[in-house]
From TrEMBL:
Organism: Gopherus evgoodei
Residue span(s) of domain Ig-like: 5-118
Protein's recorded name: Ig-like domain-containing protein
Domain of life, per lineage: Eukaryota
Keywords assigned by UniProt, alphabetized: Adaptive immunity, Immunity, Immunoglobulin domain, Membrane, Receptor, Signal, T cell receptor, Transmembrane, Transmembrane helix
Matching InterPro entries: Ig-like_dom, Ig-like_dom_sf, Ig-like_fold, Ig_sub, Ig_V-set, TCR_variable_region
Region span, Disordered: 71-99
PROSITE patterns per UniProt: IG_LIKE (PS50835)
Pfam family, one: V-set
Transmembrane segments: 110-134
Amino acid sequence: SHFIPEICSHVIILFPGGANGESVTQPDDRVTVSQGEPVLLKCIYDTSYISLTLWWYEQYPNEAPRLLLTQREASDEEERRSRRGFSATPDKQGKTFHLKKNSSELRDSAVYYCAMSDTVIAICFLTVVTTSYFTGR
């Protein structure tokens, strides 16, 4: 069974990254989409570093977070499959690293972490529901 919360509380966790004022934020702490709709999970970062590494993790209930993708391109077919259609490209001008997927699946319901370095993390809950969830059928 998949994690489909009916109510999620407002949760954004931000760990300051030290003297350089690094930060990562996800403006939407909770996103709900219908199955088959596109997904956009926003991630905005701020850093003074020119060279940086960004990650997206996903976590299912009672499981450890799993690396979903980094900013580099998938290196082989196995890595492409493990991304399940998710993609993210850093925009260094706008300082964003949004996670996108063209068509959501029920199994995409999870907690997603946008991370920059080991200490700067933000969290968003994604819930994918069937159309009947909205229509009451």
